Amino acid sequence: MANIKTMLTTFLVGNDGTAIQSPQPLLMVLKTLRKASRRLSRKKKGSNGRKKARLALARLHRRVANIRRDWQFKIALELARTLDVTCIEDLSLAGMKALWGRKVSDLAWSNFVKILAWQCKKHGSTLVKVDRFFPSYKLCSQCGHVNEQLELKDRQWVCLSCGARHDRDKTAAVNIKREGLRLLALEHEAGCRLMEKAA
Ligand SMILES: [Zn+2]
């Protein structure tokens, strides 16, 4: 059992604190891509150099997409094979924006959730998606107090209500697990009621 959470270079954090980092090759290509993008912006409009720079950038985008997809398939397969239940936050760009008031590039996350759903189905593992507006980061896992002052840069925080110390990502993962299991229990109950009705 684990729940996972997206971060920037840390891709996933489980409720036991284990983290899966984004792969080095991906981070390196992303760095090259940023450089190529800057190079393109410096080229004169309509010039041959600009055309070349644009092609180079498109090639890099394809490379990023390929590396990312392969890696996401691998991680999703590992999770689907080893876990009976995975609780995951269903993030979206809009959700991250609402949560933090800023745009976080996380299209890759929604792709990963899709791949994970596919792998879980294939390997008979249960995937529970927790609503993207559930305040996983800001919720104290000890007392339930919501820390509205928490900002994206705060990796550690102390609950003003009960004094508990939190690692942001780990606490979020604990909250997502709890919420996911609650949703799963509700679903199970509803399923049982339906079966009773049918009987
Ligand atoms: Zn608290």
Inertia-based shape: globular
Estimated helix fraction:
40-55%
The largest β sheet comes out as:
3 strands, parallel
The unique ligands bound to this protein are: zinc ion
How many helices? 5
Strand order of the largest sheet: 1-4-5
The count of β-strands is 7
- Low-pLDDT runs: 1-8, 100-105
Gap between N and C termini, in Å?
33 Å
Task: Encode the helix/strand succession as letters.
Answer: EEEHHEHHEEEH
Strand content: 5-15%
The overall number of domains is 1
Concise summary:
The chain has one domain.
Structure description:
With 199 residues, this protein is of the alpha/beta class. It has one domain. 55% of the residues lie in helices and 13% in strands. The chain contains 5 helices and 7 strands, in the order E-E-E-H-H-E-H-H-E-E-E-H. Strands 1-4-5 form a 3-stranded parallel sheet, sandwiched between helices. Strands 2-3 form a two-stranded antiparallel sheet. A hairpin with a 6-residue loop joins strand 6 and strand 7. Helix 1 packs antiparallel against helix 2 and helix 2 runs parallel beside helix 4. The longest helix is centred in the N-terminal third of the chain and has 35 residues. It is globular, with a radius of gyration of 20 Å. The site of zinc ion has 8 residues, from loops.
Summarize the SSE layout with pairings:
Layout: E1 2-4, E2 10-13, E3 19-21, H1 24-42, H2 48-82, E4 85-89, H3 93-100, H4 107-122, E5 126-130, E6 156-158, E7 165-167, H5 168-198
Parallel strand pairs: 1-4, 4-5
Antiparallel strand pairs: 2-3, 6-7
Bound molecules: zinc ion (ZN).
